[in-house]
Amino acid sequence: MLNNSFLNERSHKIEQKGENLFRQAEESKIQAEQEAAIAEEFNSALQAELEAKQNQVEDIGDRLDSLIKNQETRLLQLENTQPGFLSRPGKRPEWRKNFDKQQDLLRRLQTRREMIREIKDGIGVHSNKIEDLAYKKLRFNNPKLVSKFEEMREAARKHELLLKEKKKREQKQKKSANLGFKLKISKSPR
């Protein structure tokens, strides 16, 4: 009778543990599916923002190219209207000032175009600028999604750290257990 009661209690505990494990597995599965859905939604939204930013960079580059061509044409026209020796005394310095101003504008446009090319090609100081801008815009447009994704990544990072710490502890325990075993062997009489 006592043995039967003990067995029933033990089997009941085992069943509870099994049910708990099953519930935990189901919850883990649901959580993994939710995390996958969040990650997929985040990645597709980020990809859309990236494409929009890349198109924007291309449009800016095209507009800058057009402005540069116009400015080069304007400079050539201005160069052709350079006053000669017989012009008014103040005309030549005025023309030079205007010409230098137009050259400076052309240099600034070319510098901007170069920056846009670096951003577009992902090189130099601006290597990840498009991704940063797309991420910031996504954060502005959909802060809930970004915060969910960041929380999920932070939880995964913490989980990885815990696993690494657990692995290190286990390795230390194995090492100390092996060391203790070696000490016992070396101290045993021969």
Describe the SSE topology.
Layout (H helix, E strand, L loop, with lengths): L1 H79 L10 H31 L7 H13 L1 H45 L3
Helix pairs in contact: 1-2, 1-3, 1-4, 3-4
For the structure shown, list the relevant keywords.
4 helices; 2 domains; rod-shaped; 190 residues; mainly alpha
Walk me through this protein's architecture.
This protein is mainly α. It folds into 2 domains: 2-141; 145-190. It is built from 4 helices and no strands. The protein has helices spanning 2-80, 91-121, 129-141, 143-187. α3 (129-141) packs across α4 (143-187). It is rod-shaped, with a radius of gyration of 36 Å. It starts with a helix and ends with a helix. The model has no long low-confidence stretch (mean pLDDT 83).
Quick structural overview:
The protein is 88% helix and 0% strand. The chain has 190 residues and is mostly helical. The chain has two domains: 2-141; 145-190.
What gross morphology would you assign? rod-shaped
Bin the strand percentage.
under 5%
Terminal CA distance: 53 Å
Give the number of domains: 2
> pLDDT below 50 for ≥5 consecutive residues: which ranges?
none
Summarize the amount of helix as a percent range. over 70%
Oligomer: single chain
